[in-house]
Design goal:
The protein is mainly alpha-helical. 66% of the residues lie in helices and 4% in strands. A two-stranded antiparallel sheet has the order 1-2. α5 packs across α19.
């Protein structure tokens, strides 16, 4: 059971500030704002563009198993984050967790560096996915945005792994809308955290209005026979069933991600020992319920065969804005346009929340001397990490050139390999290494949730069609990151070269 963390009470009119090195951030985000930030991060454009992909992955309404299993997986992993976030409520999230778990001056220094290194790529990938989805719903309203202005494909043989690396870059007028959304989010975030907390609540209202409209529309036009029209052999436990489930879970996990978002701004959370676990748990259960009801409602209106058809590459124009088409069928063109505007609002709210949270991780690492020091700079008036904010925004804008499916797959695989697996194992390692560490929140049914999260992540890594390409991209990213770390450590005489430096001095 969680107990209240001991935090210094601020003087009248003064915001709470965390202890730490460098210029201190403001503890100005309470439970309501923290939960709102989590939810708008989770309910981005993802569920509105991935429903056909999930249904196609399993070939029928049984794809709801992907949502259910994905929800169980993130609940287990959410308990990992809740325990770590309550115990170490500073900025940076996984950066500081990996350091503490594996040793701040040993292997943990390498792992925490690799986490920030991959975040420099995976966070902008996540940002780009939201902005690409926003632009594609904008193309429903303004079809001219879908017009291509440039295209480039790459095919690089990889004989060592028996395959090839394939990528495509397609530039449309909508690409510039996506990039503009990145710029607007950065502009709004270029201010004090207390103001951002209020902005988050306003954005959250738009998110809830959108999903409630979709749910109510689906329920009032629900056809039970259509929603549960399972194809023959839908639940046959074949290899195709399990690979389809793996693909569906990968997409559902992408849609659920964000439940841990509050941990990255832990240094700006009021009463973090209580607020962080509650914000994580509340947002997971709320969003899981919303997703399940929304998807069942849609299946009760749109035949699953139509969703599978829209998921085909040649029909990507329809797939891009399936909810707009859904509303258009029910109410007419005006409803499709309004739905598109609301989903664009929802996508932007998610992007807003994402940049806010992830920009604090490079800041925390640089402040600790374990990343490029320019990221430690804090805005003199607003006291927010403006360099980190600007860099992630710029990289995210560049990733808007990529294909959405490649963005989602690359994001999930990189994050699981470099971050989530290390952390799910790490929460058990930390219990063994640091049993005395104060833990305001302890994982329920320890260690079962951590073990289940580990198994679930490994499952969706490998139990998919052609998983090798994304895995090898992640491995290549790790190799480059390790090389950069080793060069920096050699020059600075840090682990693992600190022993060499001491030997030279003693000699």
């Amino acid at each position: 059971m969680a107990t209240k963390a001991t935090i210094r009470e601020p003087a009248p009119g003064e915001a709470e500030r965390p202890e730490g090195k460098g210029e201190q951030l403001i503890r100005g985000v309470g439970l309501g704002s923290a939960t709102s930030l989590n939810m708008i991060f989770m309910i981005g454009v993802g569920p509105f563009i991935t429903i056909p992909l999930i249904v196609a992955a399993m070939g029928g309404p049984q794809a709801m198993l992907g949502w259910i299993c994905g929800a169980l997986l993130v609940v287990c992993d959410g308990l990992v984050w809740a325990e770590l976030g309550a115990a170490m409520p500073g900025s940076g999230g996984s950066y500081q967790y990996l350091q503490e778990i594996y040793g701040a001056k040993k292997l943990g220094r390498l792992f925490s560096f690799l986490f920030v290194w991959q975040l420099t790529f995976s966070a902008p990938l996540s940002l780009a996915s939201g902005c690409i989805g926003l632009a594609r719903y904008a193309s429903y309203i303004w079809p001219g945005l879908a017009r291509e202005v440039g295209q480039r494909k790459f095919h690089v043989p990889m004989p060592l792994v028996g395959g090839a690396f394939d990528a495509s870059f397609v530039v449309t007028l909508g690409t510039f809308v996506a990039m503009g959304a990145v710029g607007l989010a950065v502009l709004l975030l270029y201010r004090r955290i207390t103001i951002i907390g209020r902005l988050a609540r306003y954005l959250w209202v738009g998110v809830i209005v959108t999903v409630l409209w979709v749910i109510v529309s689906g329920i009032t036009h629900f056809d039970r026979s259509r929603a549960f029209d399972f194809p023959p052999g839908a639940f046959s436990l074949s290899w195709r069933f399990f690979t389809g489930l793996g693909s569906a879970m990968l997409i559902s996990v992408y849609d659920y991600w964000g439940y841990y978002h509050v941990c990255f701004i832990g240094g700006e959370i009021k009463d973090p020992g209580r607020t962080i676990p509650r914000a994580i748990i509340y947002s997971i259960f709320a969003v899981a319920a919303i997703y399940l009801v929304m998807n069942i409602s849609i299946l009760g209106v749109v035949p699953w065969q139509d969703l599978v058809e829209t998921a085909k590459p040649e029909n990507s124009g329809v797939r891009n804005y399936i909810i707009a088409v859904f509303m258009e069928r029910l109410y007419g063109n005006w409803a499709g346009t309004l739905a598109s505007l609301l989903i664009m609002w929802t996508a932007f709210a998610s992007v807003f929340s994402l940049i806010l949270g992830y920009s604090r991780a490079p800041y925390a690492a640089a402040l600790d001397g374990n990343y490029f020091k320019v990221f430690a700079r804090v805005h003199p008036k607003g006291r927010f990490p403006y360099v980190s904010l600007l860099v992630l925004g710029a990289v995210g804008a560049a990733f808007c050139l990529l294909d959405l499916k490649d963005v989602i797959t690359g994001l999930v695989v990189i994050r699981i390999i470099v971050q989530f697996i290390l952390q799910t194992v790490g929460v058990i390692v930390l219990r063994i290494r640091r049993p005395d560490l104060p833990r305001p929140f302890r994982m329920w049914l320890y260690p079962i949730p951590a073990l289940l999260a580990f198994v679930g992540f490994v499952y969706i890594l490998y139990m998919r069609d052609k998983p090798q390409q994304a895995i090898w991209i992640a491995v290549a990213l790790i190799i480059v990151g390790v090389a950069i770390y080793m060069v920096r450590s050699w020059r600075r005489r840090e682990w693992p070269f600190d022993a060499v430096a001491r030997h030279r001095l003693s000699g």
